[in-house]
Amino acid sequence: MTEEARRETAEQAAFRAHCKAWLKDNLPPRAAFRLPLSPIEIATTEQLAYLCAWQRSAHRAGLVGCDYPKEYGGGGRRGCQVVANEEMQAAGAPFLPNMVGLGMAGPTLFHHGSEEQKRRLLPALLSGEEIWCQGFSEPGAGSDLASVQTFARRERGRWIINGHKTWTSLAHFATWMILLCRTDKADKYRGLSYFVVPIKEALGRGVTVRPLVKMTGETGFNEVLLEDLVVDDGLRLDEIGSGWNVAMTTLLHERGAGSLVTPASGGKRADDPSSVGGAAGLVDLAKRSYRAGKRVADDPVFRDAIVRILIRQQALDEASRRTQVPGLTDHPMRLPLQHKLVSSELLQDTARLACEMEGMASSLYLGDDHAPARGQWPLAYMNSYGFTIAAGSNEIQRNILGERVLGLAKSK
Amino acid sequence: MAQPRNFGFGEEEQALKQNARRFFQERLPVDVLHRRVAHDPDPMRRPECLWDEALWGQVVELGWTLLAVPERVGGLGMSAAAVAGLVEEVGRAAFPSPLIATLQATYVLAACDAEASSAASGLLRRIAEGTPVSLAITDRRGSWEASDTDVTASGSGSVTLNGTAWFVQDARKAEVFVVKARSAAGIGLYLVEATARGVTIVPDAIVDLTRDQAHVVLRDVVVSADRVAAVGGKGEAALQAAEPAMLVVVTADMVGAAEWQLQTTAEYARTRVQFDHPIGFFQAVKHPLVEMMVRIDEARTLLYSAACAIDHEPEKAEILARMAKAAASDAASYCSGRSVQLHGGTGFTWECFVHLYFKRQKHNEVLLGDGAYQRMKLADKLIGPIGIGGGASW
């Protein structure tokens, strides 16, 4: 359903016209190579260069960071990022590669950074010149994030950091890392501090990035070893000991529940026959797939299953609009905190159903010439577990919803 | 046309909803409701019609029956969004009344009235004054297809109705029925007083304690020409035109009732202690409660979207309303099951209030077609009919 022409401010309407006009002529040419399905799957420098060129160009045209102040490299507008996102999505623009930067580090810097930190870091973050990654999880600190052991020791006004971060998407391309680490071993929560760390310049000098191979066979995330890494105190965000509070800002935005609308585009090109992942693609697939000699689109069992997905997709698409009407939600965090849970499970169920529809053909993977949609659905299905696990597993999301929204006793 | 960003929920709509919630909190707390409708647990009890007529009088005075009646016939002509918000509170209170039946009839009559039916406009004026009305549009098999009926209409000018309308909602509270009947010219709609000669209301013994239901037997019931609301296929068209709004009304009731189930069960999980913890501490209890919330919110978002489409984007109203009803039916089923299960042994007893909502939801689930039925209808629209290529994209 088009968002266009729903009641909006004069600034939003004019900006929408600008977006449309610019996107009409400035989408990048189709890539000659396979593009990843999401930013966390960027594997090659070729993919990265293509996507970064797109982010730079969209930023220069004012579509990325529109609501950030101009002195931080933004557009100084109000309520316009949501418009730009809608228009980029509608135009089938590629996604913006600096996902951790735009979605997590940017809002965190904006809320907790010093004036100097914001002026220095936000412009290159928004343009995509500097890629960001997130140093939160550790081998021993997953769902129980506050138990991180990476330790920053204060020494002559600087910090010496040692530890082991993992599941670090984009670390192999990143200039910066947002880092949650321990500065006091005696206090689980108030012993945490938050830094922004220039990891690229320290590669080989205290920072080691090692790729991890996902169950799909792709790389895309990493483990990062920090060994006696020296970090200037000017790269600490907020107070010593307030790291957990700062990390909550990051996590809220990571889960789509933050106060800032973060720049994003869908990354699906309407004219790309291999474009998968969305619920709308299911109907098309059902018309092209056969089971027991009959079109899947004529099978009542699959028709019911497809419509179930379309209903969930429609509700998800409209949920953010409802969030903006206070009288239509009883608790302000009720819908925002559901977003990550609902969207990741929908993605997973969509991909699973697509594989079922493909039947035997779903056994064919990326390297097979006969694979429908170039093997993207089995890939999307496996990758969907990244979304149901990452950013706080959905089990943790259910705990948070039960505790914060329904007031249930905290699970240990 | 496009939808407003706030789903059409302005200050007036919010105020209506808030006032309704306060009204029920004061006048119909759940223990009062239970005393009124659940005095006899006997499963073989005779069908009863238990409701508070004085409370209904107050509802009429508040103007709730006026809301959906078009302004041209003395109503307020308020949006479907306003009605949805109000009915959510009706569902949350499990209010036994002919309000939902009357609202549905209002939408059907308004669709007839749009075709310049003086019979329909006459009855709409009476609804505006508080007359309860119910639709008698379902056959013995419980079909919700606009073309199905077991009632026939014969004669021209003044017609004679024969047959039985089944599954008529709140039939003993209604003063007038809008009867669907087939004549040689097609499906028509005929207005019949509950007290008219030849009308017999046979109450059904139903599970739900918060409403009544009956089959209405019509034997040579004479309907004068000025009580014919639609003839010659126009009855079918009016029912189809009104269907999104009818679905929205039932969906709103379900969403409100499900929210009561969620909040009541969450409260129990916050206070009931076992193994030295309130049971909500345990994820086996916590996670199903969150799942209730997620499913309610899915249905609720679709409800507002569908209501708003009726007001601003009618070409999408049917699809969105069926999506909303499907989601709400499934959410209601899940929430009903969990509300009993998570209350443990006490949830299984007559004295625990959750059974009132469990039963109302079970009834709501099948009204106007359950989730599977709505999805079957949606598949024809979104995928295309079985065996035929194509299928509209939307």
From TrEMBL, chain A:
Database matches in InterPro entries: Acyl-CoA_Oxase/DH_mid-dom (IPR006091), Acyl-CoA_Oxase/DH_mid-dom_sf (IPR046373), AcylCo_DH-like_C (IPR036250), AcylCo_DH/oxidase_C (IPR009075), AcylCoA_DH/ox_N (IPR013786), AcylCoA_DH/ox_N_sf (IPR037069), AcylCoA_DH/oxidase_NM_dom_sf (IPR009100), Mycobact_Acyl-CoA_DH (IPR052161)
Ranges of residues in domain Acyl-CoA dehydrogenase/oxidase N-terminal: 9-129
Alphabetical UniProt keywords: FAD, Flavoprotein, Oxidoreductase
Residue span(s) of domain Acyl-CoA dehydrogenase/oxidase C-terminal: 282-406
Residues passing through the membrane, by range: none
Domain of life: Bacteria
Pfam families: Acyl-CoA_dh_1, Acyl-CoA_dh_M, Acyl-CoA_dh_N
Assigned GO CC terms: plasma membrane
Cofactor(s), names only, from the UniProt record: FAD
Annotated ranges, domain Acyl-CoA oxidase/dehydrogenase middle: 133-220
GO molecular function terms noted in the UniProt entry: flavin adenine dinucleotide binding; oxidoreductase activity, acting on the CH-CH group of donors
Family that this chain belongs to: Belongs to the acyl-CoA dehydrogenase family.
Database matches in PANTHER family: ACYL-COA DEHYDROGENASE (PTHR43292), ACYL-COA DEHYDROGENASE FADE29 (PTHR43292:SF3)
Protein name, entry field: Putative acyl-CoA dehydrogenase
Organism from which the protein derives: Chondromyces apiculatus DSM 436
Organismal lineage: Bacteria, Pseudomonadati, Myxococcota, Polyangia, Polyangiales
TrEMBL record, chain B:
Sorted UniProt keywords: FAD, Flavoprotein, Oxidoreductase
Protein name: Acyl-CoA dehydrogenase, short-chain specific
Pfam short name (any one): Acyl-CoA_dh_N
UniProt-listed InterPro entries: Acyl-CoA_Oxase/DH_mid-dom_sf, AcylCo_DH-like_C, AcylCo_DH/oxidase_C, AcylCoA_DH/ox_N, AcylCoA_DH/ox_N_sf, AcylCoA_DH/oxidase_NM_dom_sf
Organism: Chondromyces apiculatus DSM 436
Similarity section: Belongs to the acyl-CoA dehydrogenase family.
Keyword Glycoprotein part of the UniProt annotation: no
Sections of the chain in a coiled coil: none
Cofactor(s) annotated in UniProt: FAD
Domain Acyl-CoA dehydrogenase/oxidase C-terminal, first and last residues per copy: 249-382
Keyword Flavoprotein: yes
Single GO MF annotation: acyl-CoA dehydrogenase activity
Domain Acyl-CoA dehydrogenase/oxidase N-terminal: 11-107
Domain of life of the native organism: Bacteria
Gene3D superfamilies: Acyl-CoA dehydrogenase/oxidase, N-terminal domain, Butyryl-CoA Dehydrogenase, subunit A, domain 2, Butyryl-CoA Dehydrogenase, subunit A, domain 3
